């Protein structure tokens, strides 16, 4: 596998060039493009979340624990002073982080489900929903966030595959084909679950018009996709966002 430094520097290069091109085409202002650059760079490190005790794994679990801690304290039906809020948040954060670490080390397999195109798409659609629901971004910006997640993630998987080919191109290491794969067949129950989860998520995604337009410019026919794109009428995420006081 390519190492952390390689992933970081290639991720920065690809994301910044794409953000610059997007800025050039007027897809967003300088501020938005900086955010997209950052998101793309983080996504290019994300697949190695499945490497035990790697930087991406520890970073992601820290962030996730912080999110859980924050939401947990916010949902408690008490009025806290800033200090109490901070202490409680920190406590729940630390406990959640420990539990997550144990679960991750126990269950996650390197180069399994996290190194697949399916996971890349699931995370991209999730990020579009997050940008739309929790950060009140426009439909186009939400899908741009998804695009940069996909870009960073695919950059990582491609680099991993390249690293498994011998420099002279004669010999192929055993890890070839374990990074850039559509789905993880070894872990088919998880893959099957992810496919169902993706269909469920698509129904909550922002309006697909920008995605369809993008596919169209690439010459990919979109009539079928437009007809079969699921839309659920009950907006689960927005309801939860309101309950937690995060969205409008
Ligand atoms: Zn990797």
Automatic annotation (TrEMBL):
Signal peptide: none
Record-linked Pfam families: YdjM
InterPro entries, per the entry: YdjM-like
This protein's UniProt keywords: Hydrolase, Membrane, Transmembrane, Transmembrane helix
Transmembrane segments: 61-80, 86-109, 116-135, 141-162, 183-202
Top-level taxonomic group: Bacteria
Record's keyword annotation contains Hydrolase: yes
GO molecular function per UniProt: hydrolase activity
Protein name, per record: Metal-dependent hydrolase
Protein species of origin: Thiospirillum jenense
